[in-house]
Amino acid sequence: MIEGIIIKGVGGFYYVKTPNGTIECRARGAFREENLTPLVGDNVRIRINKEDNTGYIEEILERKSSLIRPPVANVTQGIVVMSVKKPDINTWLLDRFLIIGEYQNLDMIICFNKTDLSFSETSNLAETYEKIGYRVIITSAKENLGIERLKDILKNHISVFAGPSGVGKSSLLNKINPCFKLETGAISSKSKRGKHTTRHVELFELEENTFVLDSPGFSSLSLDFIEEESELKNYFREIKKYGRDCRFLSCLHDKEPNCNVKKLVEESIISKARYDNYIQFLEEVRKFRRY
Ligand SMILES: Nc1nc2c(ncn2[C@@H]2O[C@H](COP(=O)(O)OP(=O)(O)OP(=O)(O)O)[C@@H](O)[C@H]2O)c(=O)[nH]1
Ligand SMILES: [Zn+2]
Predict the structure, then answer these.
(1) Over 50: is that where the pLDDT of 196 sits?
(2) Nearest CA to ligand 1 atom 21
(3) Domain around 255
(4) Across residues 127-148, what is the average pLDDT?
(5) 169 C-alpha to center of ligand 1: Å?
(6) Residue 139's pLDDT is what?
(7) Is pLDDT above 80 for 192?
(8) Which residue's CA is the nearest one to ligand 1's atom 2?
């Protein structure tokens, strides 16, 4: 038996990358009885059928993590890409991506791209998010800035790239591995393709033991996975941390008295923009939990 990693799954076939090349495999029937489904990203042991060089997945090795949307195993980090211009940084979206990452237990890294176009606002924002505890990386795919650092961050991980359309995700990946040749820029033709083909998850190998998910980000930006309003604060690192010193353990940092979070917003220790997003998302969670 040899070991490999599932890089693609289509209609009951799994493509497993092994030291002997990529092998088309089926999963052994017993997995179904055990209620186990092999996932893209899984490290597996396979048995190869010498006659036609196909294989059978015999064993799924222990998973470090499993993402629900998209369904992938062993993803450890997410890179949220925002461009400083064209389109402008959208912190409302950025915070949403971060929440989804926190929920899925991913180490989230923020990447501000297109810094060749503008720099002024970026450094303040970078500071805000670094203070919260996020790693922030400044890049320009156009001018080859920050690419080596990004490469270092990705090394030996399976990462997912997230971010709005047009911020330069494909351009960054192409810079890291020129073999990629992902389509960039041609938004109209790209979205056409998106509509007419079924999306499946696939891992791209950037270098040895280093993969990225092909799907541009998470499949949905909805916060409907949040079951109660009290859960939201867990996904804002600084609110979670400072909220421990509120008067009420159950404080939602909204209208409650003696709220440490609100006090620190006033003292500009917690970013007001982040707090405002928190309140907006809280309303959203309340709304769909009412129905
Ligand atoms: N000035 C500048 N333009 C960039 C940079 N990175 C990407 N672009 C341009 O921005 C446009 C969009 O880049 P893409 O790489 O296609 O963006 P994307 O995030 O992959 O977009 P989607 O695939 O729609 O999600 C292209 O025209 C790129 O040439 C950069 O660092 N600076
Ligand atoms: Zn509070």
Answers:
(1) no
(2) 166
(3) 229-290
(4) 97
(5) 6
(6) 97
(7) no
(8) 114
What pTM, to 2 d.p., does this model score?
0.90
What are 122's two structure tokens? 């970026």
- The pLDDT of residue 188 is 43
Q: Ligand 2 centre and the CA of 75: distance in Å?
A: 33
Would the pLDDT of 182 be above 70?
A: no
Q: Would residue 222 count as lying in a domain?
A: no
Could you tell me if the CB of 217 is within 6 A of ligand 1? Answer: no
Looking at the CA of 113, which ligand is closest?
Answer: 1
Residues 138 and 26 in one domain: no
